Amino acid sequence: MVCNLLLLLVLGQEPIPGIGPKSPVEKVAGGFAFTEGPAADGLGNLYFSDIPNARIHKLDAKGKVSVFREKSNKANGLMVDSMGRILACEMDGALVALSPDGTGREVLADQHNGKPLNAPNDLVLDKTGGIYFTDPMYGAKTPLPQGKTCVYYLPKGGKPSRLLDNLPNPNGVSLSPDGTTLYVIPSSQKRMMAYPVEAPGKLGVGRVFCELAQKRPQGNGGGDGLAVDVQGNLYITTETGVQVYSPAGKLLGTLVFPEQPANCDFGGPGNKTLFVTAQTSLYKVELEIPGYIFGAP
After folding, report:
1. Tens digits of per-residue pLDDT, 164-180?
2. Which residue in 47, 67, 83, 171 has a CA-CA distance of 20 to 30 Å to 190?
3. Number of other residues whose CB lies within 10 A of the CB of residue 149
């Protein structure tokens, strides 16, 4: 442990008390165009997207990376549901469910009020099987199909309802472990938002959860993706690294990676490995605390 701590300090990574890291950052795989959407299935596998190449990859428990699905319609955010399906936000305009073997595809939502969605980006499952998902402008057609960048809720077996349309490019989205707070991470402002969940798909008045630390003075850079641990801490990917915040919105520290992180998720033994998609690569780092599992079988 002392040797690991010294190595981390040499690499410029000061451990965050109670969180870590416990080991140096490790590059798992590289050579991709732009990685996103890591999602663990609770069975030792991790799925992640390579958006420009329109592929979804699978990292198995033995560390082997393979192509899970070709022609992914520029899938971005991913999540595994209780049936083992891989839910995917396709930037070509749909929220879909892929079969566990990657061959089947079911469209869950591709429009709202008779108009196509913009470019679904990220998602989170609630305890009822409903899905909150974001629909910013990245990769969307012009003019913007929905006219605004939005956050939606898709009840199990239902149609999407629009919850928010007043944020500049809502991107990452997640819930608190108890399901009472929805976090929305806009990419075009430094203010990260939190909303009380009054019922599935019903939000109260939002508040500023935190303001992200900036790389440049007077910067207004936003976040991208995020993960949540069992204590409710948030891991938000930013241009400075993965910024870690307490449930009260206090910055606890930043986990640094060789490339700018885009998204992250917990997996591995004990669910204590933080997997990070960053530009051309997939990285991992061991932490002291497990991540919270949303919807995994």
Report:
1. 999 999 999 999 999 99
2. 47
3. 26
